[in-house]
Amino acid sequence: MDFRLVELERWLGAHFASVAFTLSPASADASFRRYFRATLADGRSFVAMDAPPDKEDSRAYVRIAGLLAAAGAHVPRIFAQAPEAGFLLLEDLGKHTYLDCLQRGEDPQPLYAAATETLLRIQQASRPGTLPEYDRALLERELNLFPDWYLARQLQREPSAPQRAVLRGAFDALLASNLAQPKVYVHRDYHSRNLMKSDPAPGVLDFQDAVYGPITYDLVSLLRDAYVRRDEEAVIDGAVRYWEKARKAGLPVRADFGEFYRDFEWMGAQRQLKVIGIFARLCHRDGKRRYLADIPLVMEYLLATCRRYRELAPLAQLLESLAPA
After folding, report:
1. What is the pTM of this model?
2. What is the dihedral of CA 239, 240, 243, 244, to 10 degrees?
3. Is 195 helix (H, G, I), strand (E, B) or coil?
4. Tell me: the pLDDT tens digits for 199-218?
5. Rounded to whole angstroms, what are the CA distances from 65 to 73, 87, 250, 265?
6. CA nearest 142: which of 214, 244, 72, 200?
7. Do residues 178 and 270 lie in contact, with contact meaning Cβ atoms separated by under 8 Å?
């Protein structure tokens, strides 16, 4: 029996005491959270979050939702909460993610334009000391997911001492670049599966792990999405549009676009190494094998960046020698 679901239904039953409702799966993500759509007999619908309190902190979701809403982002309103049980009752932002829209052939330009505007609003609201720091320890811990889970578990490869030295050198170079960037609020997963086609668009989901860190991070998540293939011309166009608006808004981006784009790409390399490691971990630790199918696109992004920069060329060679075609 799904005891968490039984508890959730009991909690919702107390909230909707005078109206019948039905529950259906809304979505599941890469964490331990689950989402159910509660459809009421009177036609209203809500989304119920089940976040087991021993594994997820729903209080962080509530606090960060308030920060992002105050910044002007469209996040789900919270109608009821029981953080000690791990339950939240949220506004239903609809059934169509950006990924759904892109896969059915919608024009991407308005979608990305709206996502960029929301990102700029979030960044303009940034204040130090409000969110956890995206510091070296956290960035490095994420990088280590790549050798620990992708190389060791997925490929079953143990790097030699010289290969470990290449990884260490590349990680240090990436971290130095990442940590030299100005800091803003960082969603950490600002991509097509967490952006909803809503009114206004986008609705923003899955923000509970937000931090205060490098200014290019969320832009990389959006433009080099692990689930959406975009050619380099489209990525550069999106980066230019963001950079021009960020400068006009007074955000601390580099004055030279070439330098900004280098920061963007090196931040992307950190994220791509992390994401590949996470996808392998989701398979081998959590039994979610479907994420393995997304690794080739992320690896393609990573290799393209490493081949473009002399300092990262040894990492590109290492990846080519270790990873399957």
Report:
1. 0.95
2. -150
3. strand
4. 999 999 999 999 999 999 99
5. 9, 15, 24, 29
6. 214
7. yes
Domains defined for the chain, CATH in brackets: 3-91 (3.30.200.20), 98-322 (3.90.1200.10)
Inform me whether the pLDDT recorded for 127 exceeds 70: yes
Contact assessment for residue 185 and residue 131, using Cβ atoms and an 8 Å cutoff:
yes
pLDDT band at 324 (very low <50, low <70, confident <90, very high): low
138, 178 contact by CB (below 8 A): no
Binned at pLDDT 50, 70 and 90, residue 320 comes out as very high
**pLDDT tens-place string over residues 167-182:** 999 999 999 999 999 9
Q: Note whether 104 and 95 are within 8 A (CB).
A: no
Taking only the tens place, the pLDDT of each residue in 219-252 is 999 999 999 999 999 999 999 999 999 999 999 9
Q: DSSP letter string over 8-74? A: HHHHHHHHTTTS-EEEEEEEE-SSS-EEEEEEETTS-EEEEEE--TTT--HHHHHHHHHHHHHHT-B
- Amino acid at position 199, single letter: D
Phi, psi torsion values for 178, nearest 5 degrees: -60, -45
Q: Which of 193, 9, 195, 194 is nearest to 87 (CA)?
A: 9
Q: Quote the strand ranges of the chain, DSSP E.
A: 21-28, 34-40, 45-50, 78-82, 87-91, 183-186, 195-196, 203-204, 211-214
Report the first-to-last Cα separation within the chain, whole angstroms. Answer: 43
Q: How many residues does the chain have?
A: 325
Q: Where are the beta strands (DSSP E) in 56-160?
A: 78-82, 87-91
Residue 208 β-bridge partners = none
Q: Give the per-residue pLDDT at 323.
A: 72
| Angle 174-178-183 from CA coordinates, rounded to 5° | 175
Q: How far apart, in whole angstroms, are the C-alpha atoms of residue 181 and residue 172?
A: 15
pLDDT, tens digit, 9 for 90 and up, residues 252-275: 999 999 999 999 999 999 999 999
